[in-house]
Structures are given as C-alpha cells and as structure tokens.
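Moderator note: this is an archived Q&A kept for reference. The question asked for a predicted structure of one protein chain; the sequence and the answer are reproduced below.
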Amino acid sequence: MDIVNDALKAVTNTVSGFWPQPSEKPRLAGGKLRPCPGTPNCVCSENPDSQEWVEPIAYESMNHDKAWELLKKIIDDMGGAVLSEENEYLWSTFTVPLFGFVDDVEFRLDKAGKVIHVRSSSRLGFSDLGVNRNRVDDIRRRFIGKQ
C-alpha cells in the first residue's frame, strides 16, 4: 500500500505545481480573517450571518499555547503545511490528492473567546463539493478528541 500512496503523492505534487499561487498572501483584515468571496468553495467562522459560516474551534479545557500547538500538530497529521505564523495568526495549505488543488486554510487565535477562528478557501474554481467545510469539520473533530 505504501507504493500506491507514494505514487499518489508524486502525482499530486507534480500536478499541484500547475495551479496558481494566491493573488496576495493570505492575511488578517482589520484583525480578523477575511470574509469569503461569496462562492461555495470557502468557509469562515468570522462571519456568522453568511451561508459560508462554519463553527470556530473551541478550546475550553486547555490554555492558549497548548491549543495552538495542538492545532499545528493536527494540521501536520492531516498532511497540511504551515507556511506562515505570526502572533495569533497561522496560514497553512492543504493539497487535494490526485488533482493537486491547493486550498489556503487560515486560523486566528481568539484568547478572549477561547476559540480558534478558521477560514478555508480553494484557490481555483467555483465549487469545491464541500471539501473545505468537511476539512474544517475534521480538524474540529480531531481537536475535540484530543482535549
């Protein structure tokens, strides 16, 4: 099975190089995650009144530093890559297997609310068939399971 996984990773890595880079580096806007552009290939926990809303990741039973470290471990365990980390903001990418589509997944630590806000967005296309929402739900499930 390792041969199949290795071959799939090689194809994915090759194909992902063909997809565009983000037009600008993901970042906070006004101290919060940017809103989604209104397409179904993006979800964000910072905009509760939109259909792109997804629940943030709550961390009530641990301190901020442990929650942030756990998040980074989960990203790594899921095959994501942390590209940038500044203060209470983290930008990571996930590559969709086989097709090589790259999704930007951003996180913002909200110490006062004891939650981690999340924004997951595809770089390409209009619909992602629920991939970003499912990824965020999976990250949240893994996080809750480790608390």
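Archived answer notes: The CA atoms of residues 69 and 75 lie 10 Å apart.
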